[in-house]
Design goal:
Structural class: mainly alpha
Number of strands: 0
Number of helices: 3
Strand content: under 5%
Radius of gyration: 17 Å
Length: 81
């Protein structure tokens, strides 16, 4: 965004004026938001691993599914904004 000729508000209005339905816009925002939220939450999981917590296989699976579920929910929440 720093090198584009217009400001962020201009491009936001441009996207809003596109003839696509809200479902397609939601899915596009979800596709952008999910990798960011997954990467962030999994980074927190790795920080706990660095401290020595959560190495047994049962905890690995639990935290893996937790990160997956929370990242999908968080991305859906961000995409709904």
């Amino acid at each position: 965004m720093a090198v584009l000729p217009q400001d962020f508000a201009h491009y936001l209005e441009l996207v809003k004026s596109l003839p696509y339905g809200p479902a397609l816009l939601f899915l596009t925002k979800l596709a952008i938001a999910w990798p960011v939220t997954f990467h962030t939450l999994n980074g927190v999981r790795h920080l706990f691993w660095d401290m020595g917590y959560g190495y047994d296989i049962k905890t690995l699976y639990k935290t893996g599914y937790l990160v997956l579920g929370l990242s999908i929910a968080g991305a859906a929440g961000l995409a709904a904004l």
